[in-house]
């Protein structure tokens, strides 16, 4: 019985790995369930045995990222000082962007993912809370612009092949420096 | 005769408008030639009369952006001072990101577009020249990280609905301020 569960998890993980590779290559919108099955050398029925739909696969791939965003927001929301709250949020966002480098590349990088974020209630809330904390209450155009640069900048940079040789810890520190300069206004 | 040319241009522009709207909604990878035809209420043959392939449409949509990037790079390359050259490049990049807000949103936002940039020689050269000028010769990890934040940050921000109420000129100025802080290191 334990063996069956392990086998089933292995099969699920293989589908998720293949899906993620295809999302990176072709975008979420450009990937079909048939392509995922082809990549694994199986029939689509084998994929449907693990997941209800392509949307189910997409949500499963992105869930860990949004769970981490939710955690960052929850930790930050409990901090009374607005400045400290924002700093903690930025550092948390960078940490997860770097740790999930492969997945977060898609986060700011695909209209199909943006649509998914809006469609799934918990994802939408996590992302909007993140942006609200970063912008602060009643942000002026300069603050809104800085946040609009910061979020795709961090997620885009973490996924950029030009920095893939920089170790996670150093990249986290460098991105934090960038964020501080950007938000310092 | 002149009328026929005008009509043909009108038909081409309609295809390009429909394609761009679908690219924004579903990503380039998630848009088929059939969907473009459906959006226009015509047969695919009517679309094929104007364009050889979906790739032909994609290249046509992005050509103006890359022509502008090439122009920015050419102007900057003639400036002897490295610092002035970078400043001119950043301001030029922001100007075109803001002017082409709708199109540039896709530029850093779709694996299918990244693939296109690599596939089309002139596009690839324009983009790599832009990144090389921004990073400077033999950039250290901090400079590489700042440039990796800057490019998706600028293109992402220009396309962000959160700043769509800010007029072009003001947004250009605010993004230039962000870039100066980011690159100042």
How would you summarize the topology of this molecule?
The structure is a homodimer.
Chain A: H1 2-26, H2 33-40, H3 44-50, H4 54-77, H5 82-99, H6 101-107, H7 111-119, H8 121-135, H9 141-158, H10 168-183
Keywords (chains A, B): DNA-binding, Transcription, Transcription regulation
Organism (chains A, B): [Mycobacterium] nativiensis
Pfam families (chains A, B): TetR_N
Rounded mean pLDDT of chain A is 87
Biggest β-sheet description of chain A: none
The helix-strand sequence of chain A is HHHHHHHHHH
β-sheet strand percentage of chain A: under 5%
The N- to C-terminal Cα distance of chain A equals 59 Å
Multimerization state: homodimer
Largest interface summary: A-B, 48 and 48 residues
Low-confidence stretches of chain A: none
- Output the structural class of chain A: mainly alpha
Tell me the count of domains of chain A.
2
Task: Give structural notes.
Chains A, B: Keywords: DNA-binding, Transcription, Transcription regulation. Chains A, B: It comes from [Mycobacterium] nativiensis. Chains A, B: This is TetR/AcrR family transcriptional regulator. Chains A, B: Residues 9-69 form the HTH tetR-type domain. Chains A, B: Pfam families: TetR_N (PF00440). 2 copies of one chain form a homodimer. Chain A has helices spanning 2-26, 33-40, 44-50, 54-77, 82-99, 101-107, 111-119, 121-135, 141-158, 168-183. Chain A is an all-alpha fold and 185 residues long. Chain A is built from 10 helices and no strands. The first copy, chain A, is elongated and about 55 Å long. The first copy, chain A, has 2 domains: 1-51, Orthogonal Bundle (Arc Repressor Mutant, subunit A); 61-183. The termini of chain A are far apart. In chain A, helix 4 (54-77) packs antiparallel against helix 5 (82-99), helix 7 (111-119) crosses helix 8 and helix 9 runs antiparallel to helix 10 (168-183). Helix content of chain A is 79%, strand content 0%. Chains A and B meet through helix 1, helix 7, helix 9 and helix 10 of A and helix 1, helix 7, helix 9 and helix 10 of B.
């Amino acid at each position: 019985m334990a063996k069956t569960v392990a086998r089933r998890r292995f099969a699920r993980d293989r589908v998720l790995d293949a899906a993620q590779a295809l999302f990176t290559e072709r975008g979420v919108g450009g990937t079909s369930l048939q392509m995922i099955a082809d990549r694994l050398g199986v029939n689509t029925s084998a994929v449907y045995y693990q997941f209800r739909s392509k949307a189910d696969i997409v949500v499963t791939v992105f869930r860990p990222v949004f769970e981490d965003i939710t955690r960052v927001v929850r930790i930050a929301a409990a901090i009374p000082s607005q400045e400290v709250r924002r700093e903690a949020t930025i550092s948390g966002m960078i940490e997860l962007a770097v740790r999930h480098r492969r997945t977060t590349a898609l986060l700011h990088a695909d209209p199909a993912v943006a649509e998914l974020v809006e469609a799934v209630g918990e994802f939408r809330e996590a992302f909007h809370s993140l942006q609200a904390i970063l912008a602060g209450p009643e942000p002026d155009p300069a603050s809104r612009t800085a946040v609009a640069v910061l979020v795709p900048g961090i997620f885009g940079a973490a996924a950029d092949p030009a920095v893939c040789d920089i170790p996670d810890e150093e990249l986290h520190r460098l991105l934090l420096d960038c964020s501080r300069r950007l938000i310092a206004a």
